[in-house]
Amino acid sequence: MPAIVVERLERAFGDVLAVQGIDLAVDEGEIYGFLGPNGAGKTTTVRVLTTLLLPTGGRAMVAGHDVVKQARAVRSSIGVALQEAALDPLMTGRELIRLQATLQGLPSAEGRRRADSLLERVDLVEAADRRVGTYSGGMQRRLDLAAALVHEPRVLFLDEPTTGLDPVSRKTIWEEVRALNDEGTTVFLTTQYLEEADQLADNVGIIDNGRIVAEGTPESLKAEIGHPHIQLQLEEGSIAEAERICGELGKLLPPRDGRTVMVEVPGGAAEIPRVVRALDDAGIEVASLELVHPTLDDVFVAKTGYHLEREDEEESTEQEPVEV
Predict the structure, then answer these.
(1) Are residue 98 and residue 245 in the same domain, yes or no?
(2) Domain residues for 46?
(3) Alpha helix positions (H), the chain
(4) Boundary (domain end) residue, out of 223, 246, 281
(5) Is residue 181 a contact partner of residue 189, using CB atoms and an 8 Å limit?
(6) 63 lies in some domain
(7) Alpha-carbon Rg for the chain in angstroms
(8) Average pLDDT over all residues of the chain
(9) CA proximity to 294, closest of 257, 249, 251
């Protein structure tokens, strides 16, 4: 049985339909990357799957339990680390993990043992007896992850776990997610970072305006978009003549500037000598050449019409509706 099954799931906030009839399935032991911009419905979906919000349509099963009818069983089977960690700044890291163990019903001795083990796992032993308010953002994310793991959940939900982190802290979180998955934990990962999904996810779902617009492995999604293309920076010769020649060898793509020619070639790297030879025969000198493979950003653009990462570089004020 899949770890997560979602069928025609909807969630409305008044007249706003934040999640619009989505379907998805996540296998046991899989890392599923849920991609989308702010306001797309990612966090709302996670809140429904983790029983924090009731759906207004459709159904969802997590770890074999219905999120509405068997909410308690769902909660005992999952770990959740939301985008904004709810950590008491006055508690120490050790106190917080032990409290979480108590809330999960673990015996005192087992809770202490589990806390010590998890603090070591996320490399917070030296900071374990410091107040959480003194932790950096990366340390707080790692502590929140440890708290989510205290009861050894079957399914782990991570809602944008690396947003705002520096590259070193982001890499540390990635390594821990991989390690957990290698141990058999199913991971549902929402993210705005295309590289994160490409690096970690076995399968990816792209959500935009509350609807899933693409789903599959990162490689299969990129393969749908097209073949690799050769990007040529020209030193001398006519750009028009270079485009004519390349157009005969493959599919000419829109240029980025007046000295660049891009041509899509089914054969990939094997086509490079033929392209360079044809340009050389015409007396056109190539200053530089690069073989560029399709990316998840290309997939996102093809499915939504805009760049995800370009949108994220701008400070966005758009947020998903919040129920009050």
Answers:
(1) no
(2) 4-223
(3) 42-49, 71-77, 93-103, 108-121, 137-148, 167-182, 194-200, 218-225, 239-249, 272-281, 296-304, 308-313
(4) 223
(5) no
(6) yes
(7) 24
(8) 90
(9) 251
pTM of the model: 0.82
Section 67-86 average pLDDT: 91
Given 223, 239, 273, the domain boundary residue is 223
- As given in the structure block, the two tokens for residue 72 are 């308690």
**Number of folded domains that form the chain:** 2
Q: Average pLDDT for residues 84-112, to the nearest whole number?
A: 92
264-316 per-position pLDDT tens digit: 888 878 889 999 999 999 988 888 999 988 888 888 888 888 877 644 444 33
Q: In terms of Cα–Cα distance, which of 15, 10, 68, 66 is closest to 41? A: 10
**CATH code of the domain covering residue 86:** 3.40.50.300
Please indicate, yes or no, if residue 187 is contained in any of the structural domains. yes
Question: Which amino acid, 229?
Answer: H
The alpha carbon dihedral of 3, 154, 76, 43 has a sign of negative
The answer as to whether 304 is a domain residue is no
Asked if residue 251 and residue 143 are part of one domain, the reply reads no
Residue pLDDT, tens place only, 173-230: 999 999 999 999 999 999 988 899 999 999 999 999 999 999 999 999 998 887 788 9
Residue 252 belongs to domain with CATH number: 3.30.70.100
Q: What is the DSSP letter of 271?
A: G
In this structure, the number of other CB atoms found within 10 A of the CB of residue 61 comes to 20
